[in-house]
Amino acid sequence: MKTASAKNKGRTLQKWVRDILTNTLGLASDEISSRSSGAGGEDLLMSTTARERFPMSVECKNQERVNVWEAYAQAGANADQWEPLLIIKRNHHKPLAVVDAEYFIGLFK
Hints:
- The protein has helices at about 5-25, 50-55, 70-80, 100-105, and strands at about 30-35, 45, 55-60, 85-90, 95-100.
- By secondary structure, it is of the alpha+beta class.
């Protein structure tokens, strides 16, 4: 796969996550934006309002083979004070969310 095609595939997943978050949280379309490929930091940039409603740092990987541990470590490195969230996807499969198990279970307190 060409580099441009791979980056476009990644952007497609970022935009999907952005759109589903915006719709689910009832946010304006400009509250969450997708960072360009190759730029450092988290993949989705959020306004203060968006961050209050969704206090997570999102890393997206749209690859056929992804090292989940490395990708989650990257999400953690970019997370600052927010909880890291890794969204992974590959062709012909639904996107999956990867979060820390204790954090996930704590959501049900």
